[in-house]
Amino acid sequence: MVEKYDPQMKNHQMSAWLDELKQKLNHMDDAEIVEHRMGTSASVYLVYIKTLIDPERLNETIIQPLDRSAGDSLSSCITNAKVSDVISIDDAEQKIMQGFVLLNDSVNDQWLGVQLENPLGRAVEPSQTETVIYGAKDSFSEQIDKNITMLRRRLPISTLKTESFTIGSLSKTKVVLLYIDGLINPEFVSLARKKINSVDFDQFLDSSQLAAFIEDHNHTVFPQFLQTDRPDACAYALGEGKLTLLVSNSPFALIAPITFFHLIQSPEDYFLRWPVASFLRLIRYGSFVVSLTMIPFYVALTTFHYQMVPLPLLYVLLESRSKLPFTPFAEGFFMIITLEIIKEASLRMPTKTSQTLGVIGGIVIGQAAVEAGFASKVLIVLMGISAIAFFLVPNYQVTKSMVLLQILLLILASFLGLPGIVIGLIGILAHLHALTSLGQPYLAPIAPFYGKDWNDLFIRGPLIWMKTRPKYLKPLRKWRQEMKK
Amino acid sequence: MVPYKHYGLLAIVGLMWMAGCSSPYVENNKIEEIAPVVFWSIDKGTEGKLKISTLVPPLIQEKKRLLSKEVDLLKQGGQEFNLIYYRELKQGQLRMLLINEELAKKGGIEKLINTILVDPDISMRVYLLIVRGDFDEYIKNQLTKQENQDYFLYRMLKHYEEHNQGEMSIVNIHKFMKKVYSPFKDPILPVFHSDKNNFNYVGTALFQNDKEVMVIQDVDDNIFQLLDNDHFLKVLAIPKFSISLGRIRSNVRMKLSRDYSSLSLHVGLKGRIEEYQGESNIQSEELLQHLIHEIEVYLEEQTSDLLKRMQRLKVDPLEVGTHSLKAFSKEITDEQWMKHWENMKINVDYDIKVHPLINGAVDVFQNK
């Protein structure tokens, strides 16, 4: 609830607030309460946290103008920063914690706040998680205002609305909900608003934590909010009729509603020639299936279905497996876990030691495992293909969760063979079918079926054919072309 | 909330679908514990028994040995092999079934083949071979000479089956049984001769149902390849005229008279002269035409002779009987057809077109 400024409070606020603020800022080394003498006999109290504000700007904006002033009111002295009233002691505390400098105006007997937040943050850098060859190279950073700027520059329209929320009892994280008014289905906005308002937790350090609170299904490996640090991907999604959530101190925006197929698509798909983009997209879908099923297939064939292996390949399999001490399942499981250990280590290790890891990983996986009789040569080749295929899926979160699905299929394959893999795949499909993202079906436009949206599903059709926005999003403005409005 | 009913629904659909395709109880076949056999050789045993042999371990670089058992039933053989060998023998990768000619002549191989055919583990693409001589002796002798002899034998059959080589009649059990059960069609099988050191193609065995009645070889087999099997021959050597025709493609047209009393068989051949060692000057157009005419007459005689033998033995591997089928008319029975076939008058006409014997093999002269 917004508190109103009450003029009756004036008389006792000066001294009472100062005492109260002193108490609140007790044991805070970086909190400063400074009495500054102005040119005249009057003195001004400055209350701020020095680690949150920009000292240079403090000097330029407040100290120097105050020294030069000749009995003017405080607000008229400070000209190159926005001065706002402080309406309550809680507001005063909040403002201090947000990088404001509070000043008491003894003339008018009131407290004023000047925002001098230290613009600490990194420069705009290329995305590390979603790299593209063509397309814009900028990516979001931790500063939410900068991120909004990037989106506003891409969509310079007044209908791009931003709504702010503050979540987290400790972190006081700012969340901005962005959407294009008059285009997006209003249901999505109201649902998102409702969900964000109902969030109750202490700390939010990343947007993924927010996603965990507002997503429809928690117990799944599939993300229902697309996390991206690419402003172009966000702008495209907004233009399609989706909404975007920006979270302060997190370079990753959340896009919703999404479908399963968005996880396999890359922003670069829209920058390449359509046959090339379609081909790459098909390869990505293929590699998704290959990476999931290749090792389980190996286990199923070598454990149960030797009949299905072509004779020359059976020859190779028999040779490579004839002296191994482990069952195909144990061998496959052991190798998957080893690969995960190496992948995880390569992420956590300092970059300078990554070369050592590469060599050790290569030798352990490639050579030593075979020579020691731990794994067959065929499995090593399959592991290699499957590991590379994992990385073709552009969404890193999905890449990580796919390992779990792979292990699930591996276990099913080791018990039931190919029927096990089929049961597993049916289960995954059924699970995907049951998922929703912001209330929208996760397998759209396949189930429910929207024929026109298939133009941008498995293939990326020519842009000139994509005349309408995705139908499953039920946008208010169907046509992308102005003429057809 | 999520419609979780879909999970159950889809799982049920999936299970129903799978129940139609495969058994949910999978058999443990860890490949390091089994020995998938590639061939079974079936011979006549003593006291009316069957003698079954196979090579173990198949496809592994271990010392190989030939296992042989005398059994009453085919499956019994597989079972008894397991008792004398440390890996379980599996038939899922069976690729060749070699049947001794003595057995084939006796008839009744249909039952043997049916056993293989109905086994869900075994593919339909098992090659069927008739072996003249002792195959076991050949394999035993080859054990020390060449590794994986069984695999190479399979590759040879696969090569001649797939690439339309026009060299051998290669038949799998599906093709064979299809012909056994179809009216107006008599099956064929390739015949191989085997002794201690050799294993070579002899010709094509013609079957009356499942009983071998004749074997055609050499020129007759070549003619058979052109008439029916491949309609292609890589080389047709005719020593009588010192000539080899190469890459011959045939176009066979059959016409039955309305009362099934006569058949006119027209065979158009296109190919090139690849070798000539005779005295005639084939550079001369006239002499070349004369030579070709002589070849045509020779082939007509040979073909007529071959067909007569088929008529005499009441076999119709060329499926001439299928030409009696007409739309909107009742088909004749197999027995009726055989009666007609036996007494049919057959006119054979060959028409050979050859490319001239020059480099580059241009069609200029032929089109003159």
From TrEMBL, chain A:
A Pfam family the protein falls into: GerA
Please verify whether the record's keywords include Transmembrane helix.
yes
Question: What keywords appear on the UniProt entry?
Answer: Membrane, Transmembrane, Transmembrane helix
Might you name a Gene Ontology BP term for this protein? spore germination
Q: Which InterPro entries match?
A: Spore_Ger, UPF0353/GerABKA_families
GO CC terms of this entry: membrane
> What sections of the protein cross the membrane?
285-306, 378-397, 403-430
> Into which family does the record put it?
Belongs to the GerABKA family.
What protein name is recorded for this chain? GerA spore germination protein
Species for this entry: Paenibacillus typhae
TrEMBL record, chain B:
Query: Where does the record place the Spore germination protein N-terminal domain?
Result: 30-193
Q: Which GO terms describe its biological process?
A: spore germination
Highest rank taxon of the organism: Bacteria
The membrane topology term of the UniProt record is: Lipid-anchor
- Protein location: Membrane
Q: Which PROSITE patterns match?
A: PROKAR_LIPOPROTEIN
Which protein are we looking at? Spore germination protein
Name its species. Answer: Paenibacillus typhae
